[in-house]
Structures are given as structure tokens and as C-alpha cells.
Amino acid sequence: MASPLRTLSLLGLSLTAALAAELKPADVEFFESRIRPVLVAECYECHDAKKQKGDLRLDYRDGLLKGGEEGAAIVPGDARKSLLIQSMDHTHETLQMPKKRPKLDAKIVADFVEWVNRGAPDPRVKAPEDSITPAWSDLLQVRKSWWSFQPVTAPGVPAGKAASPIDRFLDAKL
Questions:
Q1: Of 15, 13, 32, 26, which Cα lies nearest the Cα of 123?
Q2: Residue of 146 and 157 predicted with greater confidence
Q3: 51-65, 87-101, 136-150: lowest mean pLDDT where?
Q4: Is 59 buried (19+), middle (13-18) or exposed (0-12) by CB count in 10 A?
Q5: Distances (CA, A) of 20 to 14, 97, 128, 156
Q6: Helices H, strands E: what count in the chain?
Q7: DSSP assignment, residue 133?
């Protein structure tokens, strides 16, 4: 006769496998191309198997769902209620991530909002046993792409009726 613990463990593995099997290829592609790289570059440094600041792990799906000291990091299907989103867009009173670094680009936050609203599809069903924090050289390559490190350019002034070039840029954007 199987022990209750073994039965629960097998049930958990079955549910985890079922969740992974239900993922749509487009959702996996979205996660792998837009979500995981940001988690690796910006979050694992403090929230992986080795270092779990705030008792939060972001290196696998159940870590996001369980959350940390403040509660669940995400509410699949509802980005507005997700602490991860609130901390990324700096709308939470005390949580503002990444800590001691610039706020993430609005496009990155929008990708995370879309991902959570899609139900936060995540193929990472098993917790990594060891830390998978990227090497500093990998982080440096990602951070070199930040807008603040790009060369200054002189864009052409848009055509328009406004007398001031600044107003013509504003009109073009509107």
C-alpha cells in the first residue's frame, strides 16, 4: 500500500505534468523570448535557489505562485492584483524592483502584464536544485542594451505646423 505522502507526491507530479502539457506553443514562445530572459537578467540575482530574498523564488512556476513574505507574486489572469507587476511598475507602496537599479522599461512591464493576464503560462514546472544566476558577463551584455547606454543620435525633426521643433515632435507622437 502506498503511503499518503507518496500518493500526494505522485498526484502533484501528475498535475505539474498536466499543466506543462496544456501550454500552447505560442505561450511557451512568449515566455521563453520575453519573460524568462528578464527573470534571468534582473531577478534571479536575488530570487533563485541560492538567494531567496523576501523568501521569494522566481526560478520556477510554483515559486511565483507561492510567493514570499508578502504573498503570491502573481495572480494568473489578473495582472493588477499581482505583486510582481506592482513591484515592477513601482505602484506598490514598499516593493519596487529591481532594487537599487533603474525601473524596467515600460515595454518589459507591458510584456509581463500580458503574460500574467494570459494566465502566466510557464513551462518551468520543476524547481532547479542549484542556483542558475547568470554570469556577470552575460548580465553585462544585457545591460549594455539599456537605452541609457545607447549612443546619442540627432533624429530628423518631423514636419508639422508647429513653430517649435519640440512641439513638432510632440505633435508627431500624439
A1: 32
A2: 157
A3: 136-150
A4: buried
A5: 10, 28, 16, 48
A6: 8, 0
A7: P
53, 85, 147, 165, 167 from 112: Cα distances, Å: 21, 7, 19, 35, 33
Q: What is the 3-state secondary structure (H, E, C) of 59-84?
A: CCHHHHHHCECCECCCCCCCHHHCHH
C-alpha cell belonging to residue 81: 492584483
- 31, containing H or E segment: none
DSSP 8-state code for residue 45? T
Q: Mean of the pLDDT values across residues 151-158?
A: 90
- Residue owning grid cell 505583486: 83
Closest among 107, 128, 1 to 58, alpha carbons compared: 128
Q: What is the pLDDT of residue 113?
A: 95
Place of cell 522566481: 58
C-alpha cell at 121: 503560462
pTM: 0.62
What does the pLDDT average to over 124-148? Answer: 72
pLDDT at 100: 77
CA distance 46 to 59: 10
Cis peptide before 98 (omega within 30 of 0): yes
pLDDT in the model for residue 40: 84
